[in-house]
Write a structure and sequence with these properties.
alpha/beta; TIM Barrel; 8-stranded parallel β-sheet
Length: 329
């Protein structure tokens, strides 16, 4: 696996700097070194170029709160907003932690959401877990202070760091796949958002992806990826159907447009769609992980600053977010 990942990483590094023809040639060489990649036929999504948004209810600071406080009227209203602006898909997260507390209610609420989506003409890109956020504790799940509440990782680092506990989230994966592997109301199932190497999260994500693959139906499987189109290279050998990349805060429109064009070329070579599943605004301030470096007028979404570029690229996309909530300041 190390050699395979090295090949992908090398090709990706050269891809950004090379011309269009040499970019395609670079990736073609990678494919020749990965026989399983040539043999695997990815499952094609019903909508190849979705026009969508990330959906988290306006008052929820994390997905545990979203499902604990699930409100049918709110979902129906918000999904109506989505269709009124021409969207055909929404990217949502489930909550493994809330499912452990009340599986019946979580599943009933999810069924209502899926029915609502179908009635509104929307397909859901449904994510199961998330590696982006703060540690998953009771306090972080309950926090509703607008100044301190943040998204939470799921499952916790306590679980990901202990291989003997990986079977716990695997039970959730099995349950979801048994119910939804062939559910036409879904556009795709995303096993993990932005897996990282710390705390064994990449290894755990590969394990959970394999669990999902064992019960796979006709709904495609995918992984949420970092800015730079990196993580999906760790899942090509497992049969990933849709590739993703994120760039919430590009600082330069020309570079952002080049990235979108590059993504389409990667998709062409690898024979499967590549979507930008998180974009939010042009941000020229020096971010560097510290929101104090961001100018006040750049703290919140400004979709119009990128919308024209995304539209002209004709690429599958999901903006952050439907309820105009900022992503990870």
């Amino acid at each position: 696996m190390q050699r395979r990942n090295f090949l992908f990483s090398t090709a990706l590094a050269g891809f950004g700097a090379a011309g269009a023809s040499s970019r395609l040639e670079s990736f073609s060489k990678v494919i020749k070194h990965v026989p399983a990649l040539k043999e695997y036929q990815p499952v094609k999504p019903e909508i190849v170029t979705p026009n969508g948004a990330v959906y988290i209810p306006a008052k929820a600071f994390n997905t545990w709160q979203q499902w604990k406080d699930y409100n049918e009227n709110e979902t129906e209203r918000d999904f109506g907003y989505a269709t009124s602006i021409g969207l055909n898909s929404l990217r949502i997260w489930l909550s493994y932690e809330y499912w452990l507390e009340d599986p019946k209610r979580h599943e009933e609420s999810l069924e209502h959401m899926l029915m609502t989506a179908e009635n509104k003409g929307l397909k859901l890109l449904m994510a199961l877990f998330d590696s982006k956020g703060i540690e998953n504790t009771y306090g972080s799940r309950e926090n509703r202070n607008p100044k301190t509440a943040l998204a939470i990782i799921s499952p916790s680092n306590e679980i990901s760091s202990d291989l003997k506990r990986w079977h716990e989230p695997a039970m959730f994966v099995n349950r979801i796949m048994e119910q939804f592997a062939n559910d036409k109301r879904l556009l795709a199932i995303e096993i993990m958002n932005e897996p990282i190497y710390l705390n064994n999260r990449m290894a755990m994500s590969r394990f959970l992806f394999k669990v999902a693959q064992e019960k796979k139906g006709f709904i495609p499987l995918t992984i949420g990826s970092f800015h730079g189109m990196q993580n999906w290279g760790n899942f090509m050998d497992l049969g990933i159907d849709i590739l993703q990349f994120h760039n919430n805060f590009p600082s330069n429109l020309t570079e952002f447009n080049n990235e979108l064009e590059m993504a389409k070329q990667v998709a062409e070579v690898l024979g499967r769609p590549m979507w930008i599943t998180e974009w939010q605004r042009l941000r020229v301030s020096n971010f560097e992980g510290n929101k104090e470096n961001i100018s006040p007028d750049e703290l919140f979404p400004n979709l119009v600053s990128l919308a024209g570029t995304v539209r002209d690229a004709e690429i599958g996309n999901y903006f952050w977010s439907l309820m105009l909530k900022p992503a990870y300041l």
